[in-house]
Specification:
Blueprint: E1 2-7, H1 21-32, E2 36-41, H2 49-56, E3 60-64, H3 70-82, E4 86-90, H4 92-96, H5 98-102, E5 111-113, H6 120-128, E6 140-144, E7 147-150, E8 192-195, E9 198-199, H7 210-213, E10 218-219, H8 222-235, E11 240-243, H9 252-264, E12 272-274, H10 285-293, E13 296-304, H11 308-315, H12 321-333, E14 337-344, H13 351-364, E15 368-373, H14 381-389, E16 391-392, E17 409-410, H15 416-432, H16 435-442, H17 445-449, H18 451-461
The structure holds cobalamin (B12) and iron/sulfur cluster.
Amino acid sequence: MKVLLASPESELWTSRKHIPLGLGYLAAVLREHGHQVGIYDSAVEDESLEDVVRRHGYELLGITAVTPLIVDAWNMARLGKRLSMITLLGGPHLTLLPEESISPEHPEVDYVIKGEAEESIIEFVDALEGRRPMETVHGLYWRHRGEMVVNPAARLIPDLDTIPYPAHDLYKITRYTNLNPLTDGLDTKARAYTIMTSRGCPYKCTYCSKPITGDTWRPRSVENVIGEWRWLVKDLKATEIGLTDDIWNLKLDRAKELCRRLIAEGLNTVPWTTVHGMKVNHTDPELFQLMKAAGCRRVGFGVESGDPLILRNVIRKSQSMDMVRNAFRWAREAGLQTMGFFIYGMPQETEETMEKTTRFALELDPDLAHFMLATPYPGTEMYDVIKKYGNIFAHEWQDYAIQSDKARFTMPNYDPDLVVRKWKEAYRRFYLYRPKRVWEKVSKKSFWTELPSTLRNAKRFFLPEKVSVAGNPASGE
Ligand code: B12
Ligand code: SF4
């Protein structure tokens, strides 16, 4: 079958240019089963979907979506139907809310697959081609005689070594800008590939969409990861690699072994970074030394809050502030750049707790700090708490993009306007009000090459403006 796997684009992320890794995995298994596959990522294409579909005669359109992009995914499915294609949706949002997209309001969606789909997409294409009944496709949501049918759930793939490497060769790699669009990449012109060495995470942070990857941690063998790394470096000429695991360092020994193998294989010449961050309580000085020797350039850590009670009781991060301090110190001593992620406005936050977070960011002083507004994604514990005790302002799924400058909920004794103010203030105090930091920034060449996007951000964070709260009646909007 001729399958086009697609990622929709929206105005939400003008600078987003990162690889849709899930589509690469699905393309690889489809290809292995003899199907003709293409990847269409709207963020980087210069040809319309219509032209691509007509030129190659694609029959099935498989669209991926995170929550803020689901509306764009539906729009893309509508276009697919106009082109007489079969439409299939999958990805994080569909794993959380599969029924929504197969409801009568979305006739443009023919099928939805919930969960990891390397196995079920093959079953599905087999069913479309008449080799098995549709009822036996795991994780499938579909319609039969006007009624929604829910098939038995798909499993989390127990042994990740059994699936092929993502079809990295199908990405138009030169069009992807960098690994960390939230902050900045190591090199905006890099051939930057991503790699996922494990799936899942046993922790239970309350803001995290846990149902997507599950509570179990499934590592790939070091051998298997090295094989993919070698392909990226030697054959695909990667100049930058990003680890996108939820928690690649859960088992310290395995993380160290991976670094040792990268060194032994001579794969440490290409810089890499931990895109999504590392968990501070699974580190030690030796790990960072090995990472540095293995080519790692930058590490990110989820710090989240500077208030121990918020960290423990509200976020349930299972890490202490001293563990955070140690990890930053050890990483710095090893010569790695550091990046910190901080959240403003979790339930129960006050001016005092957010002030502590800003002060903690200043104390840690990472090379890059990213401050985010708390966002209650469906499928998180935080969402359930706010639904029960508070009021979510975000009415449209697009409002869930972290980059939009709006508070998304209120709770008793919680001030959304204050949250937005403290969040913007954090950017100003971290990046602007410290002469040494400003000098460090402007004296680098990258400051001038990245000036246009810097100015866009500056407008959002550094210029005084009226605080806007999404649909908050109290804000007068
Ligand atoms: C790395 C990462 C990022 C990086 C990506 C950088 C890069 N260079 O790759 C950055 C920091 C940019 C990022 C941004 C965002 N992220 Co993010 N990110 C991740 C992370 C940790 C890994 C993503 C990944 O590589 N997955 C690997 C592949 C294999 O998994 P997958 O894409 O889900 O695909 C599988 C299935 O979903 C399914 N599938 C996927 N697509 C399709 C399509 C079809 C047709 C079918 C049938 C099946 C299917 O099959 C695939 C193979 O099994 C995930 C958590 C996670 N573990 O998945 C969060 C995660 C996806 N991100 C999340 C969020 C919220 C975001 C943002 C929306 C935040 C924001 N800024 O507003 C943005 C969205 C950006 C965008 N346009 O997609 C949430 C999504 C929650 C939700 N409700 O949608 C997650 C789940 C984190 C979490 N646990 O809460 N992210
Ligand atoms: S935020 Fe990170 S550490 Fe916490 S549960 Fe999610 S993946 Fe695990």
